[in-house]
Each structure stands twice: as structure tokens, then as C-alpha cells.
């Protein structure tokens, strides 16, 4: 494993060095190309400047030639006038001035033509220089492409980087496996009881919790064994008919029985309290219904409910309803002495037979009984 790791590290170093050299060569070629491009741009700018200057000089030369031709025409006209009118000092002077001006124009035209020729020569030199720079740039590009190539360098660099990353990941995995193996070896040494006396020491606690727990478990096991033996003897004596009450009373009550008895007592007490609370709530509900709606509801057998009005003239005056599925409303009015009275029969005929409304019937009955008591 170490040999493989060393080989991987060496390959990683070789690939890294090769990638760095390729990147360096690519960078140098890129810098050279940028310099040549910059020089080419400068030369092209100068070439454009000289071409513009050459065009300006050509325009000036054309203007001077036209001016020279005009002066020549003027001189010829003066010569014609001089021959016709005779020689005069004024004409001679003007003629001399015109010839001097024409001579100066010729000199100036020659100078401009010289400058124009120099500009053309300079322009030609710059053209040749630009051509040489373009040739040099093409050679640099060809050399760059033929030597390594931009795309090849990038692809090769990416491949080398990926290879380096893979080797690095593999090296990390090997390191992790090595660490895990070391930990496993240490664990095996500890499990086998291996101890380096020069570096490690074993200390034993005077009050070891494990030893105390082990001792308690042993005492508890002895007590349970004794109790089991006593129970076996009691069972044998009971089967033989020699068991006395003193023998049974000497035995301690089982812990589970006592816990179950406690749970049973708590459940009974809880049920008793729930019953009391339910009865209290039921009584409160009946009282509030009696106060708000004027009827005391008593539950009887077979799903029958007895309603006693607050304003009844006698205590026996009551109505009995039964819950049934035969009626659409689900409630049926049973016959009683109070329901057979004439006033109640009229209300039954109106509200139950025609309107089919028990709330309306009970409300009308309450108003009728209330009106009777107030009138009395």
C-alpha cells in the first residue's frame, strides 16, 4: 500500500509539473501574440495617419497646380497686352513681380511634391513593415498551433487536472483506509488485553460502581432464591394439608399484587369522582333547562322522557314523549291525563297535527299555563 501510495504521489508530481510547463508555454505564446497584435494595431494607426496626410498633400498640390495655371494665363494675357500697348515701366514691373511669384510657386510646388514623394516612400515603408508584422504574427500563430495548440493545451491541461484530482481522491481514500486499519488494530490490541507497560497503566478503583452493582445483584438473587424456596415449601405443605395460617402470614405479600391493588383503588376512586362530576353536571344541565325553557326533563325506561312544566297547576300534570323511528320527527307524544285535557288537545291539534312542530307546541303550552297563573 505504501509503495502504491508513493507511485501515485510521484505520478501526481509528474502530471502537475507537465501541466504547469504546458500552462507556462501557453501563457508565453499568448503574451507574444498579444504583443504582436498591439504592434500591428500601432502600425496600422500610423499607416492610416500617413495615408490621410498623403491625401491632404495631393489636394494641396492640385490646388497649387491650378493656381499656377491661373498665374500662367494671367502672365500670357499681360504679355499680349504688353506687345499690343508697348513697353511701359509699370507693365515691366508687374511682369517681373508675376514672374517672381510664379517662380516662388514653382519652388513651393516642388517642395510639396518632394514632401508628397517622401510621404509615399514612408507609406510604402510602413506597408512593408505592416506586411512583415503580419507575416511574423502568422508565423507565431502557426508555431503556437503546431507546437502544442491552444485547444490541445487546454484539453491536455484539463485531463491532467482531472487525473491529479482523481489521484488526490484516491490518496485520501487510502489515507482513510490506513487510519481505519490503525484504529482496528488498536481496538484488537485493547480487546486482547495488550498493554504497553512503558506508556500505559491500569488503575483499579477502590469503590468501583460495577463491582458494587454486581454485589447488589448477587444479594438480590440470593433473596429471590430464598423467597422461591419458601414459596415452594409453602406450596408443598398446602398440597399435603399441613399448611397453617401462621405459615401463610409469615410470607411477605407479593409486590405485584400490592401494586395492582393500588392501581385498582385509584381507578375506583377515579370512577367514583367521575360519577359525581357527571351527576353534578347533569343536575346543572337539568336546572338550567328548567330555568330557561320551563320544563323539567326526567328520563324513564324504554327511551321515554317526562316533561313537567314550571307553570303546571298540579304536580301530576306532565307530558311523556318517546323516541321512535316511526314518526318523521323521531318523537312521539304519549297519552296522559294531562294530555287528554281540552286545552292541551286543542294545542295538539293545532301545532302537532297541522304545523307538526313540537317546539311550537311546548311554547304555546308554556304561554297558556303562564297566562292562567297570572290571571289567577
TrEMBL record:
It comes from the Eukaryota. It is found in: Nucleus. InterPro entries: Mad1 (IPR008672). This is Mitotic spindle assembly checkpoint protein MAD1. One of its GO terms (cellular component) is nuclear envelope. The keyword Cell division applies. Residues 150-194 form a coiled coil. Belongs to the MAD1 family.
Amino acid at each position: 500500500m505504501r509503495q502504491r501510495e508513493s507511485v501515485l504521489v510521484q505520478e501526481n508530481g509528474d502530471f502537475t509539473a507537465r501541466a504547469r510547463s504546458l500552462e507556462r508555454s501557453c501563457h508565453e505564446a499568448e503574451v507574444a501574440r498579444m504583443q504582436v497584435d498591439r504592434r500591428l494595431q500601432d502600425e496600422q494607426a500610423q499607416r492610416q495617419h500617413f495615408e490621410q496626410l498623403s491625401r491632404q498633400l495631393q489636394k494641396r498640390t492640385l490646388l497649387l497646380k491650378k493656381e499656377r495655371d491661373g498665374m500662367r494665363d494671367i502672365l500670357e494675357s499681360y504679355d499680349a497686352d504688353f506687345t499690343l500697348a508697348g513697353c511701359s515701366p509699370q507693365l515691366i514691373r508687374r511682369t517681373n513681380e508675376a514672374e517672381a511669384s510664379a517662380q516662388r510657386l514653382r519652388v513651393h510646388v516642388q517642395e510639396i511634391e518632394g514632401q508628397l514623394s517622401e510621404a509615399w516612400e514612408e507609406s510604402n515603408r510602413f506597408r512593408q513593415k505592416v506586411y512583415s508584422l503580419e507575416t511574423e504574427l502568422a508565423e507565431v500563430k502557426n508555431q503556437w498551433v503546431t507546437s502544442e495548440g491552444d485547444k490541445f493545451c487546454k484539453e491536455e491541461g484539463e485531463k491532467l487536472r482531472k487525473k491529479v484530482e482523481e489521484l488526490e481522491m484516491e490518496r485520501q481514500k487510502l489515507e482513510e483506509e490506513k487510519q481505519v486499519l490503525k484504529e482496528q488494530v488498536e481496538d484488537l490490541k485493547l480487546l486482547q488485553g495488550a498493554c504497553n507497560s512503558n506508556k500505559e497503566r491500569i488503575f483499579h478503583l477502590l469503590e468501583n460502581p460495577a463491582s458494587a452493582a454486581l454485589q447488589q445483584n448477587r444479594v438480590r438473587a440470593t433473596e429471590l432464591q430464598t423467597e422461591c424456596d419458601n414459596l415452594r415449601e409453602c406450596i408443598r405443605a398446602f398440597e399435603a394439608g399441613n399448611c397453617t395460617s401462621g405459615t401463610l402470614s409469615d410470607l411477605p405479600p407479593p409486590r405485584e399484587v400490592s401494586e395492582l391493588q393500588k392501581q385498582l383503588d385509584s381507578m375506583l376512586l377515579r370512577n367514583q369522582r367521575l360519577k359525581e362530576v357527571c351527576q353534578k353536571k347533569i343536575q346543572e344541565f337539568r336546572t338550567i333547562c328548567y330555568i330557561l325553557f320551563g320544563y323539567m326533563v326526567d328520563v324513564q325506561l324504554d327511551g321515554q322522557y317526562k316533561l313537567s312544566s314550571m307553570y303546571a297547576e298540579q304536580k301530576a300534570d306532565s307530558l311523556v314523549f318517546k323516541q321512535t323511528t316511526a314518526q318523521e320527527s323521531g318523537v312521539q307524544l304519549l297519552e296522559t291525563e294531562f294530555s287528554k285535557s281540552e286545552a292541551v288537545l286543542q294545542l295538539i291539534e293545532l301545532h302537532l297535527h297541522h304545523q307538526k312542530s313540537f317546539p311550537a307546541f311546548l311554547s304555546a303550552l308554556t304561554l297558556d299555563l303562564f297566562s292562567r297563573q297570572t290571571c289567577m
